[in-house]
Design brief:
Distance between the termini: 47 Å
Number of domains: 1
Number of strands: 0
């Protein structure tokens, strides 16, 4: 089986149970408002994409490391980039569900913001550094064009 198909199967294979278990793992807090039917599609569509991102993160954990190693960057930068990309994909499912499940608890809101938002910012910086270094090193390897 080719890797792209296997990665897609892994992603969907993890996305479906993630979507189905969201409210089992993170039940709504007591007294949480029930959205009207007219808003349900606007809440369900992002939830589907969050679950798919989670599944893509699992597939990236399985296949992404080897691809990143081929970029020829320092092993430490490659490892933190691997983790940053995986986290950027995996985090949305628990992140959004924690936000929903904590209700009006402001301390928990601060914990979610620190645990998810700040780590996502750090992940984005790591990915940007990796990307810039890969582009810089590929330019250095290209022969100069004669004019």
């Amino acid at each position: 089986m080719n890797r792209k198909l296997l990665a897609a199967l892994i992603a969907v294979g993890f996305a479906i149970p993630a979507f189905a278990l969201s409210r089992v793992i993170w039940p709504d807090p007591p007294g949480a408002p029930t959205p009207p039917a007219s808003l349900l599609p606007f809440l369900l569509v992002p939830a589907v994409f969050e679950a798919l991102a989670f599944g893509a993160g699992v597939a990236f954990l399985v296949f992404g490391g080897r691809l990143l190693q081929q970029a020829g960057q320092a092993p430490a930068l490659t490892l933190v980039t691997y983790l940053a990309i995986a986290w950027s994909l995996l985090n949305w499912w628990p992140h959004v569900n924690f936000h929903r499940a904590i209700g009006p608890n402001l301390v928990a809101l601060v914990e979610v913001d620190w645990g998810f938002h700040l780590t996502l910012i750090i992940s984005a910086v790591v990915i940007a550094i990796f990307f810039v270094r890969v582009l810089s090193s590929s330019r250095e390897r290209q022969p100069a064009l004669a004019v």
